[in-house]
Design goal:
It contains six helices and no strands. It is mainly α. About 5% of the residues have low confidence. This is DNA-binding phage zinc finger domain-containing protein. It comes from Mycobacterium botniense.
Length: 178
């Protein structure tokens, strides 16, 4: 797992290659990059990240370095290492099992909390899953989070963790019909 220090080391190494196209470090930048790697390259470690910096700078670039550049390379490095391991190695078995669990969860559409907040204090959690029905307000398909803001008391950034009240009502009706 990548740490803040790992990100600082990677940015320092990247600046040694190309100061013009490496972002200046700040606590906010490091926090954003840490969030990115936690989400898009959770299995990557310090060695993967530093190797990704080296690989990224193999050719000249004329744009600012982004975390997605490095996370993609780090994931490829990790996959390559995994492919080279024996089929019965404990590390390979563990990582493949983890990938299978994640794929199964994503396929079922349950990568979001089973009981998202309704966004309204007058509508407590009911034990139903609003993601089990299509949202009549924003049109989000079943198993996908709501996509449009507008839930009273919920910041736009939190909308992926909530469901529109009309979706909660639709899920309650669907549950009652069963």
């Amino acid at each position: 797992m990548i740490t803040s220090d790992d990100i600082l080391d990677a940015l320092t190494k990247a600046a040694a290659y190309d100061t013009q196209h490496t972002p200046k470090t700040s606590s906010m930048l490091v926090a954003a990059w840490l969030e990115h790697f936690g989400r898009y390259a959770p299995d990557a470690d310090r060695d993967d990240l530093l190797a990704a910096v080296t690989e990224y700078h193999r050719e000249p670039r004329d744009r600012m370095l982004q975390p997605a550049d490095l996370s993609g390379i780090a994931r490829a490095i990790r996959r390559d290492q995994l492919d080279r391991e024996p089929l019965d190695s404990p590390r390979r078995i563990e990582l493949e099992a983890k990938a299978e669990r994640k794929a199964a969860i994503d396929k079922l559409g349950q990568s979001w909390p089973a009981e998202p907040s309704t966004g309204r204090p007058d509508r407590p959690r009911t034990g139903i899953n609003p993601l089990s029905v299509r949202c009549p307000f924003c049109g989000a398909d079943a198993s996908r989070p709501c996509t449009i803001g507008g839930v009273p008391g919920v910041k736009r950034a939190d909308i992926r963790k909530t469901a529109h009240p009309s979706r909660v009502d639709a899920a309650q009706k669907a549950m009652a019909a069963q």
